[in-house]
Specification:
This protein is an alpha+beta fold. The chain contains 10 helices and 8 strands. It has helices at 30-38, 42-61, 68-76, 83-98, 131-147, 154-163, 178-188, 211-216, 219-230, 238-248, and strands at 66-67, 100-106, 111-116, 152-153, 171-172, 176-177, 192-197, 204-209. A 3-stranded antiparallel sheet has the order 1-3-2. Helix 2 (42-61) packs across helix 4 (83-98), helix 4 (83-98) packs antiparallel against helix 9 and helix 5 (131-147) packs across helix 9 (219-230). It is globular. The protein starts with 29 loop residues before the first helix and ends with a helix.
């Protein structure tokens, strides 16, 4: 179903190095996109990438085919001049975090679905366990904690999630009760540790990695994940890189 990047109107391409181009439509020349990107802040682009990832995940959970027109109208909007970059980054995030790939199923009307890249045993139900999406969210939270110095206040966590269009006080279509998921389920599973900060009024809490997170992933893995998300080399973050390198020795 995939073709190379130079094919006009192609679906997602699949390269050997895993760094696929998730182009959904004919786009501006790369040089023009780069010039357009220079007029946008990295935070603006990252926000749009996060919005697109959430939009696609919600559509996928409902098993609703995704129209390119809806992506442009409901998410990309005034960022059409950097459309290809936003879609590429969102596609990489979906694949690396959730094990999903964007596939075109109707080349005339430009309709897409998300398919799992995780191998399945014969006879396994095609419906993915929602646990996969939860663990993807967990990886994002663990990355945020590490990049902020291994400890963050609860208010910073909730504000970070709001920037991803995940509202702690509202029931999310994919993750359900966000506060319960983060403060109860992830804590019970030992992925997160939440401890009260003394002498704070109203009470504040400190979020850190739990022992299970430290066993199942590493700071270097998390740093590589962040680097791929932002299109940078892990060594760009000198302090975090040195810390991650030390803990893997």
């Amino acid at each position: 179903m995939s073709q190379r990047k130079r094919s006009r109107g192609s679906g997602p391409s699949q390269a050997d190095d895993g760094d696929e181009d998730f182009n959904l439509s004919p786009t501006l020349p790369r040089s023009q996109v780069q010039r357009n990107l220079e007029r946008r802040s990295q935070d603006q682009v990252n926000q749009k990438v996060s919005e697109l990832v959430q939009f696609l995940l919600v559509k996928d959970q409902k098993k609703i085919p995704i129209k390119r027109a809806d992506i442009l109208k409901k998410v990309i909007r005034e960022y059409r001049d950097v459309y290809s970059e936003i879609v590429n980054q969102a596609g990489r995030t979906l694949q690396q975090v959730f094990g999903l790939q964007l596939v075109e199923i109707d080349t005339r009307q430009h309709i897409y679905i998300l398919t799992s890249t995780v191998p399945r045993t014969e006879g396994e139900n095609l419906r993915r366990d929602i646990q996969t999406a939860k663990l993807g969210l967990l990886m994002v939270i663990l990355s945020f904690i590490f990049m902020k110095g291994n400890s963050v206040k609860d208010g910073a966590v909730w504000e970070f999630l709001r920037r991803l269009r995940i509202q702690p006080g509202e029931r999310h279509e994919v993750f359900g009760d966000i506060k319960k998921l983060v403060t109860e389920e992830f804590v019970r599973q030992k992925y997160l540790e939440i401890t009260p900060i003394p002498l704070t009024d109203p009470p504040e809490f400190k979020y850190q990695w739990g022992p299970r997170a430290a066993k199942e992933t590493s700071k270097m893995d998390v740093l590589r994940f962040v680097a791929k998300m932002q299109g940078k080399d892990p060594m760009y973050w000198v302090s975090q890189y040195n810390e991650a390198k030390t803990t893997t020795l």
